[in-house]
């Protein structure tokens, strides 16, 4: 099938590459000429394990191409995925900014030829698909199309496997014809018995927000329990294991830390709250999760300051990890962006290392010292803070680390290391919810 993806950001590029791998002929369209030119040359603008190889392979085999020509790419497609950005509104009110979605709808409407399925792949509030459908009809009354909502559930750092082996495929469609097209698109997944959830447009849109909000609530819950553990002398790792083995609850997302970040949870929880408020429906559990997350990040600042005696003036803090999670270069709403600046403002010197996030961080925080590896980040440090659990930080040479530091203070915000092991190695160890 000939498919066009509008938008070559994270979702669009992963979707295009994976659908091409399924055997479809994919055209990825974007207005950004420099990005398209780079992609045509095999240069990938984001870091996602395995994506560069998948893009190059399918480009070489003729199933994946990149263009700035909207008219041609739309006219030749049987299905069009809209995968443009939906950032939080510039007004700061938490609503998703649908400017790019609506602009794409109006522009593609002018070039539709023959029956086409238009698919919202971007994360959008309830009612967006019908608004897009209305705009297309108004722009081109003769257009023959169906509207579909097909939310993505891609985890950064594991997007390829998530797309190729998903837990489910959610398809919001109001016609049998559109459902048949979507089944054909995802046929390889249907053949391996991936569950397909067929719903109306509004249900599909809400499923994405509800799923992310539920996971955010789960993270916030375990962070609250970690804080309680610290006060009563319990260990949150034991608590999480005991709770997570309950089949009704499960162990995933019961890992305490400095708070959630990234491109989805912060934005989607706020957007869901705004939708609920707009319809007069309380969403207190989601509201609490947002508040707890902000409080958790602030609490990490206090944890670091307290570990350093309450005063960080003139202290050197080594930091391992800046991205909101490992295996990505994404700094959006990363806990590091909330935790490190207040320490800098209080007079600390910050020296950091991250395998993928430093290029962007240098633009945001030129005051930080950027190092080549974890051991340079630890050199002459009064404290070493493990902020992001990259694999390369999981088996550090602890004797070497200790010899490089001014004092052996290790603050583990991801609970990667065992407190007993660290204490036996001569470190003062500070975890999250650990004894």
| SS class | alpha/beta
Quote the average pLDDT: 95
Largest sheet: 8 strands, mixed
Shape: globular
Work out the count of structural domains: 2
The CATH class of the largest domain: Alpha Beta
Q: Which bin fits the share of residues in helices?
A: 40-55%
In CATH, what is the homologous superfamily of the largest domain? NAD(P)-binding Rossmann-like Domain
Uncertain segments of ≥5 residues (pLDDT<50)? none
Radius of gyration: 24 Å
**First-residue to last-residue Cα separation:** 57 Å
Count of alpha/pi helices: 18
Name given to the CATH architecture of the largest domain: 3-Layer(aba) Sandwich
In total, how many beta strands? 14
Main sheet: which strands, in order across? Answer: 3-2-1-4-5-6-7-8
Strand proportion, as a percent range, falls in 5-15%
Topology-level CATH name of the largest domain: Rossmann fold
Tags for this entry?
Rossmann fold; eight-stranded mixed sheet; 18 helices; about 425 residues; six-stranded parallel sheet
Structural overview:
With 435 residues, the protein is of the alpha/beta class. 45% of the residues lie in helices and 14% in strands. It has an eight-stranded mixed sheet, with helices on both faces. Strands 11-10-9-12-13-14 form a six-stranded parallel sheet. The chain is globular. The mean pLDDT is 95.
């Amino acid at each position: 099938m000939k498919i066009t993806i509008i938008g070559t950001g994270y979702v669009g590029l992963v979707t295009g590459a994976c659908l091409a791998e399924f055997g479809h002929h994919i055209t990825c369209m974007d207005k950004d000429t420099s990005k398209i030119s780079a992609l045509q040359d095999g240069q990938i603008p984001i870091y996602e394990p395995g994506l560069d190889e998948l893009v190059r392979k399918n480009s070489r085999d003729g199933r994946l191409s990149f263009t700035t020509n909207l008219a041609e790419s739309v006219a030749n497609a049987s299905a069009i995925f809209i995968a443009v950005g939906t950032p939080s509104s510039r007004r700061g009110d938490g609503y998703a900014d649908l400017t790019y979605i609506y602009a794409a709808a109006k522009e593609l409407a002018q070039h539709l030829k023959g029956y086409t399925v238009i698919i919202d792949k971007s994360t959008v509030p309830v009612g967006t698909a019908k608004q897009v459908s209305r705009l297309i009809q108004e722009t081109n009354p003769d257009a023959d199309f169906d509207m579909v909502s097909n939310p993505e559930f891609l985890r950064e750092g594991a997007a390829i496997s998530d797309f190729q082996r998903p837990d489910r495929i959610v398809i919001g469609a109001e016609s049998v014809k559109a459902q048949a097209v979507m089944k054909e698109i995802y046929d390889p997944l249907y053949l391996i018995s991936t569950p397909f959830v067929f719903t109306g447009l509004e249900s599909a849109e809400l499923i994405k927000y509800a799923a992310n909000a539920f996971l955010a609530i789960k993270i916030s819950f375990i962070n609250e329990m970690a804080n309680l553990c610290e006060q009563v002398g319990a260990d949150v790792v034991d608590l999480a294991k005991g709770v997570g083995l309950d089949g009704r609850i499960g162990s995933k997302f019961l890992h305490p830390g400095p708070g959630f970040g990234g491109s989805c949870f912060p934005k989607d929880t706020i957007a869901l709250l705004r939708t609920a408020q707009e319809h007069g429906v309380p969403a207190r559990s989601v509201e609490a999760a947002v508040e707890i997350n902000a409080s958790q990040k602030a609490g990490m600042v206090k944890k670091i300051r307290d570990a350093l005696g309450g005063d960080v003036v003139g202290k050197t803090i080594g930091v391992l990890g800046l991205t909101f999670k490992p295996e990505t270069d994404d700094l959006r709403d990363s806990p590091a962006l909330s935790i490190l600046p207040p320490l800098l403002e209080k007079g600390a010197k910050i020296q950091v290392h991250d395998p993928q996030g430093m290029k962007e961080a240098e633009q945001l925080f030129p005051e930080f010292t950027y190092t080549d590896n974890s051991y340079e980040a630890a050199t002459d440090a009064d404290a070493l803070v493990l902020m992001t659990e990259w694999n390369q930080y999981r088996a550090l040479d602890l004797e070497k680390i200790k010899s490089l530091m001014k004092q052996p203070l290790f603050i583990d915000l991801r609970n990667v290391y065992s407190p007993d092991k660290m204490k036996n190695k001569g470190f003062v160890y500070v975890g999250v919810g650990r004894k």
